[in-house]
Amino acid sequence: MATSNPSVFLLTVNGQIEGANFPEYDNLYCKYCFVYGHDWAPTSGLEEGITQITCKGSQSSHRLIWNFPLETTFKSTNPSGWPQLVVSVYGPDVFGNDVVRGYGATHIPFNPGQHTRTIPMFVPEPTWRLQKFTSWLLGRRPEYTDPKVVAQGEGREVTRVRSQGFVTVSFHIMTKDMKKLGYDTGPSSPANTPSVTSGWSTEEQPYNM
């Protein structure tokens, strides 16, 4: 017989990495991974992945379209360490070498429902001009050994970076048993109480950063 007092809550993340805007670059692909706290654990789906290579269409738009699906479920006892999505975009330089074109991260939305995030991207920059010239000549741009560092902040305060490009991600968020554990991510107004089906909260709610 199922217990009425759950010990964990569930967070289901569905959606897609829709595309990107990098006016100066083409033929790009995107890698993604999730970063989360010690109390969190994935129960199903993929924690990381890589999109196909895409190029800009014949239209004047600078958009690159991936429409790459995201689907994973987490369990936790504590909202601390709420999952973040880390994305890194790569493409060829003038010598044909794959180099990083941008890193970025965003927290998974807290409220159930549909959400869209536009993630500003950045790249590490060499400290000295000689390093910049050498990295261009050898096709070795500065990169993080582990892209997850962009979600942690620790150790990044000494990194020189340059902003370039944006990645757009859409989310459909569902939660289960958060209220039973004393956590409420829904709206404060009773008139807009999230609908619940089998314990899953799926009501679409606006999310303010």
UniProtKB/TrEMBL annotation:
<comment type="similarity">
    <text>Belongs to the B9D family.</text>
</comment>
<protein>
    <recommendedName>
        <fullName>B9 domain-containing protein 1</fullName>
    </recommendedName>
</protein>
<keyword id="KW-0963">Cytoplasm</keyword>
<dbReference type="Pfam" id="PF07162">
    <property type="entry name" value="B9-C2"/>
</dbReference>
<feature type="compositionally biased region" description="Polar residues">
    <location>
        <begin position="186"/>
        <end position="209"/>
    </location>
</feature>
<comment type="subunit">
    <text>Part of the tectonic-like complex (also named B9 complex).</text>
</comment>
<keyword id="KW-0206">Cytoskeleton</keyword>
<dbReference type="GO" id="GO:0036038">
    <property type="term" value="C:MKS complex"/>
</dbReference>
<comment type="function">
    <text>Component of the tectonic-like complex, a complex localized at the transition zone of primary cilia and acting as a barrier that prevents diffusion of transmembrane proteins between the cilia and plasma membranes. Required for ciliogenesis and sonic hedgehog/SHH signaling.</text>
</comment>
<dbReference type="GO" id="GO:0060271">
    <property type="term" value="P:cilium assembly"/>
</dbReference>
<keyword id="KW-0970">Cilium biogenesis/degradation</keyword>
<dbReference type="InterPro" id="IPR010796">
    <property type="entry name" value="C2_B9-type_dom"/>
</dbReference>
<feature type="region of interest" description="Disordered">
    <location>
        <begin position="182"/>
        <end position="209"/>
    </location>
</feature>
<keyword id="KW-0966">Cell projection</keyword>
